Amino acid sequence: QNNGFTSQMLCATDAFVHPRSISVHTTANKAEDQNFYNWNIQWADYQPSGYWIPPFTLFNIWVIGDDIEGFVCIGTQGLAEKRDRSKQTENMLELALTKGQNLFTSGPNGGALHFRNNGSTNFRVLLGPQTEPIPYFVLGQTPPDDWHRMLKESDPMTQVELVGNHVVIAAYADTYRRY
What we know:
By secondary structure, the chain is mainly beta. The strands form three sheets. It has a five-stranded antiparallel beta sheet, with no helix packed on it. The longest helix has 9 residues. The N terminus is likely disordered.
């Protein structure tokens, strides 16, 4: 303990090496971008984390930084339901973040954690131990051996995320393995 603040492990596990400390970068407002570029649809203005939270779970997120206009979004827009792939999951649950400790309870579905920053400066989040790592591949950062180890140690129904420069692909591990 250091001045009343307990430090938590910053890596998920030996097999899941992505950090629990995440820099959340500013993003343009999706409606403003849609108007500026004359797009028919809005792009996703949130960034993935490589973590998920089970349903009805109390969890904490520490936020460090100034000018916090951030949100945690739980779930994945348009992902098929785990048990019935013919249906889509509900929309993301969006919760506002404040500087310091944030305590939340996940909804009935839980889901992958994503972060949105509509402020003017970046901020950092530290994910509490209640969040669980998922297979998470970031182009140019994640070694293939680490990715394959995460997949091997995951349940087939676990959500996986593959992150590129301009796209995030979310699927379940069994779907990824099949294709």
